[in-house]
Amino acid sequence: MKKFFFQVLTSFMGAWLAIVLAGVVAVILVIAMFTSMMSGEVAGFTKNSALQITLEGSLEERANSVELGLSDLLRGNGEKVQTVEDLVAAIGEAKTNEKVKCIYLDCRGIAGAPASLHAVREALVDFKTSKKKIFAYADSYTGSDYFLASVADEIVLNPAGEIQLHGIGGVNLFLKDFFDKVGVEFQAVRVGKGKAAVEPYTCSEMSDVARQQSMALYDTLWLGMRQEMSSKERGITPALIDTLINRDILSCRPASFILDKKLVTSLQYRHQFEDKVAEYCGQKDGLEHVVTPSQLLAVTDSPMNSYTADNQVAVLYACGGIDTGGMGGGGINSPDLVDEILSLADNDKVKALVLRVNSPGGSAYGSEQIWEALEVFKKTGKPFVVSMGDYAASGGYYISAGAQRIFADQFTITGSIGIYGLIPNISGLLGKLGINPQMVATNPDALFPTLMYPLSDKQYAAMQSMVENGYSLFVKRCAEGRHMTVAKIEEIADGRPLAATVAKSYGLVDEIGSLQKAIDYAASTAKLKKWKAVSYPNAAGAFAEMLKQFNQESAALELLTGTNPQRMMESAREIVQSFSGRHSLHAAMPTIIFSY
Fold this sequence. Notes:
Number of strands: 21
Mean pLDDT: 84
Largest sheet: 8 strands, mixed
CATH topology of the domain at 49-162 and 253-298: 2-enoyl-CoA Hydratase, Chain A, domain 1
Distance between the termini: 69 Å
Shape: globular
Structural class: alpha/beta
Radius of gyration: 27 Å
CATH superfamily of the domain at 49-162 and 253-298: 2-enoyl-CoA Hydratase, Chain A, domain 1
Strand content: 15-25%
CATH architecture of the domain at 49-162 and 253-298: Alpha-Beta Complex
Helix content: 40-55%
CATH class of the domain at 49-162 and 253-298: Alpha Beta
């Protein structure tokens, strides 16, 4: 028995020792990686190098620590995180960096919303004013690839390749019939006929209103994308693009057809193309000297991280669903964003604020808290400007409305001023499972709302009244911020998502322009002669956020294994609360899935 306990103790100590050693090794590797990134040395980055931008994966507004875990860092996968912030900064640096001779767009299937793609495209257009060339290559171009590649001086396709250009479309799944089968009903309360976010849960098919507003939105965006991809030099008109898609089903045509229509400038295999780029750069032994965006930014001083600088224009990123950040989804956690706004208000080094909004909305309550914090910031007298990314809709517009000036990309989706609530009723499902809930309470509505019973008429009316009160406050905030009457806002609200160009015609947006234009306007309004644009939240907190994620994962494991019944009950209570009270009201736009 003594020997048995000794063996158990030895095994236990061995396991813990292995864990500790693994942790030490991991920390050393992470430190080494960051040290190498900051060392200012990149192998192969010499005079006449090419900035190679590999367009693959999803294109996000800004890197989120949750998206880049420790396992990714240790595997060296950091370069796969594609962000508008980094790509635009790297392209801007390449424009003036004497070591960079050209840009090589390696198109492998980037996925992103139109406004994000357009921000990168605008940076590429600006790069060309340096008289340096852009080369694009793909084995097969997707629509989003081609949208970026079309700006290149030479657009090259593999002789066996194709172009997957279809136009813009999207598919939403309508789930009502499925939920009917399993015995779940979604009870909806909303304000705004165009507030179609509830329809997938309450309807078997898309309403005429939702279809019309989606079609109008897609038509506006596609009109802009066709115009951008057209080329007078190659005789590519917007109308021709549609003809090739509709008449010829372009995606099924061979590379020779694509070359004949001048959508590409030549057909080459990859090694032939790279030899050509190497020759342009003056590299004699093939394309050896290339630098990636992250490497280029690592060896240059990034003004966006100058947190100790005086005369800052703070660029505060508000990305994702509002009040989803606390669930590890990388969204906007309203308490955290409120704290950040108030901190910037008190920061004497910060002279102006540009809120970069890329949010489809979310919690109406969270949106109000962020709006109020921004009002506190405005009382300091510092300029407050909004720059809209892919989305600044519903709650995303709520937090934008009070800005001194609103800038949006021409492909931004905004508006969608409306509020809704969804209360599930699972009584049918419980009946199918043979579960019969029995309520005992001192008052008839003591458990309201509960998932286990349908809403009564009185409860339904109470929920509708709450939604209407929330909508009235939303409209009031928009009217005050835009210096319009409530009646005028209600005319253009109704829950409809709008393209930025349409929103501008209504007065919801002041100017179509990039983030840089918003920054320049904020600096000018603050009367700054010398200033630096600095990104917030501080990226230095990324590692701490990653450790926080590990703690959350540990808690999740504890929950799943059932080792903490108290935590399980608390989580169940939080789920029910998410469908009730102030947090159940959503200022969110309908889900839009882009397919190019």
